[in-house]
Amino acid sequence: MKIAVASADGTTLSPHFGRSTCFIVFDTTDGKVVGKEVRTNTHTAFAKGECSGEHHEHGQEHSHAAVVNALSDCQAVLCGGMGWRAAEELKANGVQALVVEGETTPEEAVAAYLAGKLKSCGSFCRCQH
Hints:
single chain, 129 residues, alpha/beta, Nucleotidyltransferase, domain 5, five-stranded mixed β-sheet, two-stranded antiparallel sheet, 3 helices, 19% helix, globular
């Protein structure tokens, strides 16, 4: 099983999925991490420079297809925050999206997920951009 963690710097949990600079992908077997890789985020609107400030530019397509495709080999994505559209597109493609509650490292979040003890707030942003 592969678990992706949205990260701002390759070492910490990103507060927002779409604004992450990379994804740390943990490869797991039998509930243990057996490897990890860092994948640069070149897929979201922010990563591609299509957004300014806090909002998407008017007229910009708001699709998460590229990032969903990039993470399609993962069974779960963990992050500090995520918009509801991204969460729905991940879910529609068989990837569980979880917003991690509290301060934690990517390694701690993955270990808690594997143990069935991850605290997820379960809340996705419903902002209107």
